Amino acid sequence: xxxxxxxxxxxxxxxxxxxxxxxxxxxxxxxxxxxxxxxxxxxxxxxxxxxxxxxxxxxxxxxxxxxxxxxxxxxxxxxxxxxxxxxxxxxxxxxxxxxxxxxxxxxxxxxxxxxxxxxxxxxxxxxxxxxxxxxxxxxxxxxxxxxxxxxxxxxxxxxxxxxxxxxxxxxxxxxxxxxxxxxxxxxxxxxxxxxxxxxxxxxxxxxxxxxxxxxxxxxxxxxxxxxxxxxxxxxxxxxxxxxxxxxxxxxxxxxxxxxxxxx
Length: 263
What we know:
CATH class of the domain at 167-262: Alpha Beta
CATH architecture of the domain at 167-262: 2-Layer Sandwich
Helix content: 25-40%
Mean pLDDT: 94
Strand content: 15-25%
């Protein structure tokens, strides 16, 4: 690891100011950035930790009923909100191991946008909004492809707002070593229809499966998916699973997510 300076501001304003330095980089829970720096695959002269800012921590309910989660809220904290948004809490409880869940943050995960991360599927399926000090970004516009987001240089996430669906479920087929999703599917049923978001499968990162959404909007049951097929074009193919295998898993995991939502 290269030498660096660590700053721990306690306000959003101070963090934003520190990040104006072109050699500064935001640090959430550090579950991706720190291992990468240890391997000397990334370098930053200054790390600006966001975990000491009270305004970025905690969960509340907005005036519109949405669940508002501070960006520096850990996965373990999100996992405790089963009474507010059960499917999202269950998703958080499946991330990594206890050490990861007690250090990693929802804002860090979304900003990193790993193609196999769990939260992007929840955000996209829930039609969440990602807030920064400057603006509000819809989840549909936030995710720009593998490890790419709509965040500008130095821009940080301060809050994520999740509309709560009527029913929802998340199921993933976990890669045993990393606990990342080989394929993960989040299904959310709203009054105006069903949203299905898939993580872990595509080289372009998280995406919505529109054919499944149409079928489930007509009949919210696993059997509504029986006649559907999904192209494996542009899907990830590696030693853990081929593109065709991932396409098969998407359909299976979607059915299981629907079953979870119904039960």
